[in-house]
Amino acid sequence: MAIADEPTEAPDSTAVRVALWRAMHVQVDPPPHVLEDEIGLRLADPDDDWHHRPDMDPNATSGFRAAIVARARFIEELVAEQAADGVVQYVVLGAGLDTFAQRRPEIASRIAVFEVDQPGPQSWKRQRLIELGYGIPDWLRLVPVDFEASESWWDQLAAAGFDPDRPAVVVSTGVTMYLTKEATAATLRQLAGLAPGSTLAMTFLLPPQLLDDADSTGLRASEKGARASGTPFISFYTPREMLTMAGEAGFEAPRHVPGTVLAERYFADRTDGLRPSSGEDLLVATIPTLQPDAAPTDRAEQSSGA
Ligand SMILES: C[S@@+](CC[C@H](N)C(=O)[O-])C[C@H]1O[C@@H](n2cnc3c(N)ncnc32)[C@H](O)[C@@H]1O
């Protein structure tokens, strides 16, 4: 029998997995931690034996765990930097059990945070946030959207208070592999219309044949697991393909940030051997701010003539 306030929707299993990896990092890896996030674990509230899930094997899946905290740290630094530069809107596409709003309220409360995700799992998260006492503050907007449906998520974002005329930082981590390429291309076209000064960061999975033997075996195993749990990886991209898609969508100078750059940045000094697996890279693109009317050469000429 359902209890009145019991969650009726299930959390997304892919979002739970990455949240558990973030918590495991704190629990099984020695400090310093690349990211400290155990709130996702509290939200997910798994069975006591969750550590014994095959995908939580501390050794066999350490590369995935490390890659997940690396991308989360990269995004967190990007958002902190953008907020310090005056950007006041943060959009998380496919937010899952993202806990930036709960862990970093000193930043989040100064900006509007829009979490976009599938309606069912999002309503489950809403209820868990309330149950755990975090609540849904004014500056946190939960926007229920299915990117594969014909509805316009952009309109829903605007209805939730997003101002398309103000710069935003928009991120999507661990989502594109679950979407058709058409849905991601449509999302990129929409995002290319963001206000000047906006930044997009989006992760994508590389085709396994581009990886070395160890990482390709790992990726194929996780592909199999994803399929078995009903959330198959359906889209892989070469970096060139992703850059071309972003360019065709309207981004002027999209950049490819390899996962290996994150590995070097956050793991190079570790002595415990923890290293991210490769297989997921990032697209980073900005919308240039409008230039003043006078071209730099004109100004140089004017000043040299003064
Ligand atoms: C692996 S989780 C990543 C969660 C979060 N971005 C992170 O890095 O922790 C993938 C997320 O994409 C969302 N997602 C998958 N397909 C979607 C769709 N068609 N529309 C909206 N969200 C979707 C899932 O609900 C889930 O929250």
- CATH superfamily placement: Vaccinia Virus protein VP39
- Overall structural class, as computed from helix and strand content, comes to alpha/beta
CATH architecture: 3-Layer(aba) Sandwich
Helix content: 40-55%
Count of structural domains: 1
Biggest sheet features? 7 strands, mixed
Mean pLDDT: 91
What gross morphology would you assign?
A: globular
Instruction: Classify the oligomer.
Output: single chain
Rg calculated over all Cα atoms? 20 Å
**Low-confidence runs:** 296-306
Q: Tell me how many strands there are.
A: 7
Order of helices and strands: HHHEHHEHEHEHEHHEHEH
Number of helices: 12
Cross-sheet strand order for the largest sheet: 3-2-1-4-5-7-6
- CATH class call: Alpha Beta
As a percent range, the share of strand residues is 5-15%
Bound molecules: S-adenosylmethionine
Write down the CATH topology.
Rossmann fold
State the distance separating the first and last CA atoms.
Answer: 83 Å
Detailed description of the structure:
There is one protein chain. The protein is α/β, with parallel strands linked by helices and 306 residues long. The protein has a single domain, classed as Vaccinia Virus protein VP39 (Rossmann fold), CATH 3.40.50.150. The protein is 42% helix and 12% strand. It has a 7-stranded mixed β-sheet with strand order 3-2-1-4-5-7-6, with helices on both faces. The longest helix is centred in the first third of the chain and has 23 residues. The radius of gyration is 20 Å and the shape is globular. It starts with 12 loop residues before the first helix and ends with a helix. The C terminus is likely disordered. S-adenosylmethionine (SAM) binds next to helix 1.
